[in-house]
Amino acid sequence: MNQSYTPTNEAEFPLWLQEDMRSNHAGETGAIFIYRGILSVTRNQQIRTFAREHLKTEEKHLDLISERLSEDHRSLFLPLWKVAGFMTGAIPSMFGSNAVYATIDEVETFVGEHYREQIDRLKEKVVFPDLRSILEECREDEISHRDEARDAKSKKSSLFLRAWCWLVRVGSKLAVKLARWG
Description:
The chain is an all-alpha fold. 77% of the residues lie in helices and 0% in strands. The protein has helices at residues 15-41, 45-66, 78-93, 97-125, 129-152, 159-181.
């Protein structure tokens, strides 16, 4: 097999990579709805600008993933990811900019780790370098989003906000497991 060839669809991917791509598609769908949730609630112009810019990036990521994953291999739970994403953006928006930034920091930290695991596996197996390059590009964008949110948020957070961020992280882990499954 030519190591520099990236399949155009998941039929040529091994099962573990099909599952990864399904979870990536679900995650990028959820991310789009996080920013839509933020935009539906906040009137803070700084947060609105932040969300609009990041929404464009997440839409680009979804397009890149969608090009490599046919509709019949996408998560069965896409409606759930849309609602969960929307709520993950809308809820902290009701509590102000610090809650939004803390939420995005938590989400993007998780996503950066999630992409890193996949990139490492592709490197280790020495397969699909073009796909690995796409995932690296997506990861860099997510880390940039994380850093922007981290720099903007307060260094202090309430017990409620820490609990919310824990819930976001646990929910993200569960979502990946469920999306990989179906």
